[in-house]
Amino acid sequence: MAKNRIQEALAKTDLKEALLKRFISYVQIDTQSNAAEADAGSIPSTEGQKELARLLEAELKELGFDELFVSEHFYVCARLNATKAKEKTPSLCFLAHMDTSDAVSGKDVQVKISENYDGRAIVLGSGPEGLALDPELEPELLDCLGDSIIHTDGKTLLGADDKAGIAEIITALAYIIEENIPHGQIELIFSPDEETGHGMDKVPFDWIESEFCYTLDGSHLGEVEYECFNAYKSDIRFIGKAAHTGTARGKLINALTMAAFYIGLLPRNESPETTDGYEGFFTAMDLSGNIEEANLTVFIRDFETESMQNRLKRLEIFAEATEAHFPGSKVEIQHTEQYKNMKDALLKKPEAMQLVKKALDELDIEMISKPIRGGTDGSRLTEMGKPTPNIFTGGHSFHSRTEWASLSQMIWATETIIRIIKNA
């Protein structure tokens, strides 16, 4: 992005200061979700998400929303009634999630801000030796010359995924309220456990009156995502046979060895680290167990339904191959659908994308449509009947110690929300 556009954003002090203050306060709360707890039906899966929900509830109450509640599963839901003469304006719903990934610690986040970024590597303080934001590895940094780069000391993730989205939504709505800008009905939902794949499991769906919604959970400036993977997870149980290792010959069947054999059958050229664009993948996510029994979770992603079914069938063939390689063993598989590609549903409701395109055109920001190599709460909402494209937040390198955010892009995301509301 041109340096003058970055400075234009950073000069919007009425938005910048409030946005940054909110974002920094939110990332101080450790809201890492716990996949095992969420899989067992505990939503939210961690106490930190409840703490953030209460903070957001208090903040929204102070702003004066017409309706506000936190559900029994800690979804924060709020509504602004339409202003006079705007009652027939389409209702809009904005969403972001409160939890952060369990891949990297989110506890005791130390926020650092590198102002007037000059294009060189940013060393991340006291983190692992050599850890830095390097433009050779993070080329999007070179679009941020002169910007304020928000990052950590390298010990934790930042939490821009998705606390940047929360901060942007609340800052935009605070601006709408404070400036008395006419608007239709506006709804917002902040959800728990998106990172575990359970973000919409307990959402108060019947409360949502908007015909379409927006998630603020994307990345680089101008990115708007309206298609995503089809997603499954497969829970695979390996049943071996225990025996004393001293007299194990001909008796012992090691379930952990079975699991390792199975993982070795997953095609290396169809893994997340070897694919991009529209290429699908398999990836082993979690393994636990002992000699007698081991449990493996595999994530499967593909943009096409037929290809997905083929991938699930291949996992079953790998199970048969494992049983054949370890006579007397047993392998059990349970497939669970996590979310579907939202493209077809969004094409049937073009107004959602049209409003985003108009907002970005007015802000002179190029809209970049790309597939999500993952999913959002919007993927599930779209499947449930509420088409929900995903808008950029300015956050980058999610789920890592090198996670960072562009302050100017966060400001432009906030402006995009405001324009969508004005244009509706």
Task: Annotate the secondary structure layout.
Layout: H1 3-10, H2 13-27, H3 35-39, H4 47-63, E1 67-70, E2 76-80, E3 92-97, E4 112-114, E5 122-123, E6 132-133, E7 149-151, H5 160-178, E8 186-191, E9 212-216, E10 223-225, E11 230-239, H6 255-265, E12 281-289, E13 293-302, H7 305-325, E14 330-339, H8 343-347, H9 351-362, E15 368-369, H10 377-383, E16 390-391, E17 395-396, E18 404-406, H11 407-423
Parallel strand pairs: 3-8, 3-9, 9-16, 10-15
Antiparallel strand pairs: 1-2, 2-8, 4-7, 5-6, 7-18, 10-16, 11-13, 11-14, 12-13, 17-18
What does this structure look like?
It contains eleven helices and 18 strands. It has 424 residues and is of the alpha+beta class. 32% of the residues lie in helices and 21% in strands. Strands 1-2-8-3-9-16-10-15 form an eight-stranded mixed sheet, sandwiched between helices. A four-stranded antiparallel sheet has the order 4-7-18-17. A four-stranded antiparallel sheet has the order 12-13-11-14. Helix 1 crosses helix 11 and helix 9 (351-362) packs across helix 11. It has two domains: 3-228 and 341-423, Aminopeptidase, CATH 3.40.630.10; 231-338, 2-Layer Sandwich (Alpha-Beta Plaits).
